[in-house]
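Hey, resending since the last one bounced:
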Amino acid sequence: MRSKRPDWDTYFMMVAAVASTRSTCLRRQVGAVIARDMQIISTGYNGAPKGLPHCGEVGCLRELLGIPSGERHEICRGSHAEINAIVQAASVGAPTSGATIYCTHEPCSFCTKAIINAGIRRVVFVRSYPDPLAVELRTQAALSVERLPDAVLDAMAPCLE
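The structure tokens again:
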């Protein structure tokens, strides 16, 4: 017997959660999916740029320097999942204007600026992230923002380990 079919937001967030399993970040595994018209345009996860050593190989500079979460984003060798999803869409010529981005974690201010510039109009996330500037930017840009319940990802936890 087939289990209950997920709604679209849950479905795309589940795909984002699977994308997060590719993350090479030692602190937080994040996944993102960009969808438009109920179709996946691209996915992304956080990690070092193509061809560069991963944090697992060279260590986490943020950990070494004791930088708390939500601060000094520029001191990290990794690219965030949202940026990687936007870049992936651009690399294959897939327009993101009017799309929705599904993120396992709330986008930071750097990613929020890229989301706004990519023309993405809706942000859906599950886990919060401490970045008040990101919230302000999303409000000023009149982005639609929705936080899904933790249960959406919690139910997937056994599948992601």
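The longest helix spans residues 8-20.

Sorry for the duplicate.
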